[in-house]
Amino acid sequence: MGNKIFNAPHLRCSQNMLLINRELILSLIPLIITALLKYGLPSIRLMFFSVLSALLIESFISIFKKQPLTIFDGTAIFTGLLIAFSLPVAVAFGIVFLTNLIAVGFVKNIFGGRNGCIFNQVAVAWLFMCLAFPLPMKAPIMVGCLFFAVILGACWLFYKKIIDWKVPVSILIAVVLTSFISGQKVHFLLADAGLFFAVVYLFTEYTSSPYTKIGRIIYGFTAGFLIVIVRNLTGMNASIFLVVVITNSLVPIFERIGVYLHLYVHKKIFSSI
Question: CA angle 178-171-83, nearest 5°?
Answer without folding.
Answer: 120
